[in-house]
Design goal:
mainly alpha; 2 strands; globular; disordered N terminus
């Protein structure tokens, strides 16, 4: 057999063999963990795997999923946003208050929320870029500031009532082809962001900035513009999450429903394979992690386990994800000899 024939034979065999390598070890691990969680809680409670409960899990995970998707983008770019939960809270309040002020106009409420989300996101980006503030510190300040803003606007109480409006009811409780509208919004957002990251120059530049910002700058990439744009994207999607929170609960929520979302979003992105130093990650892994967290949270609730343990589980999963990353990169642990 000639060398050329051997190569063709090898290539043909490679194409024909089913391979799971394209999924990645991280994603395969998440799929395995998800199967275990589903099997465990399904065996403990017959209702866990029922269609109605799976729908509850999907709807509850939608808001976290939206924030996790954009958190993935900013982490790939080498940043972080700890304020996403508070941004969603501000947007929720604004959407309900603008809805009421405009004479029960749902579109006005949504437009106001998205506008505020964009402004908040751009503000985060400007502080980080031109104030030269570390993203963690800048958005940690935003976490407190935006939470306070939501409470000031609402006087600390739920605002408005939107369940008499067809648009909000459709967003919060409607279905298309058997799937909740909220889930469709997450799917469309995830697909759009995935395509942006994978198949456009913008996505390649985002990866380049996170992988090596010096090399990206020398290659002519405008890092400042990209960072501000990424944080503006986070603000806009966080506003959509806030609108869905309003639609789901029936009123604008300054804190309830949005508190703790930042931890869930960061945990999902890290579990999904995002390197917290930037340059690596993908939407598929993040969505698998969101599904895993949603099933775990719901399973603990169905079993009547104290909800405080959910926070313990989330914190433990975040640490585990970071430890796995450190081991894979071979980076020396802090304080230990080389």
């Amino acid at each position: 057999m000639t060398t050329a024939t051997a190569h063709r034979s090898t290539d043909s065999g490679t194409r024909k063999r089913p391979s799971f390598a394209s999924l990645g070890g991280q994603n395969l691990s998440l799929i395995g963990a998800l199967v275990v969680v589903l099997a465990l809680f399904g065996s403990l409670n017959d209702n866990f795997l029922s269609l109605s409960n799976l729908q509850v899990i999907a709807e509850a995970a939608t808001i976290t999923g939206l924030l996790a998707v954009v958190q993935t983008v900013v982490i790939i770019c080498g940043g972080l946003d700890i304020s996403v939960g508070s941004q969603a809270g501000v947007a929720s309040v604004v959407s309900a208050m603008a809805f009421t002020s405009a004479g029960s106009n749902a579109l006005a409420g949504m437009a106001a929320a998205v506008g505020v989300g964009l402004l908040v996101g751009i503000l985060n980006g400007v502080v980080i870029v031109y104030g030269r503030v570390n993203p963690t510190i800048a958005t940690l300040a935003g976490l407190a500031a935006y939470k306070g803003l939501a409470q000031l606007l609402s006087d600390g109480r739920a605002q408005g009532y939107v369940l008499n409006d067809d648009v909000f009811v459709f967003l919060g409780r409607g279905k298309i082809a058997g799937l909740p509208v909220m889930v469709w919004i997450l799917i469309l957002t995830a697909v759009a962001v995935h395509l942006l990251l994978k198949y456009t120059d913008i996505g390649r530049n985002v990866y380049a900035i996170g992988g090596n910002d010096t090399a990206a700058r020398l290659a002519g990439i405008s890092i400042n513009k990209y960072l501000i744009a990424v944080y503006a994207l986070i603000g806009a999607v966080a506003a959509v999450a806030g609108i869905l929170l309003t639609a789901r609960t029936g009123s604008g929520q300054p804190v309830s429903g949005s508190e703790g979302l930042e931890l869930k979003a960061i945990t999902a992105a890290a579990l999904g394979g995002c390197a917290l130093k930037g340059g690596k990650g993908g939407i598929g892994g993040t969505l698998l992690a969101v599904a895993l967290l949603g099933c775990l949270e719901n399973g603990l609730t169905v079993q009547g386990i104290n909800s405080f343990w959910q926070n313990v589980a989330q914190g433990a999963l975040l640490v585990i994800a970071v430890v796995i990353q450190q081991r894979r990169t071979g980076e020396r642990a802090v304080g230990l000899p080389a």
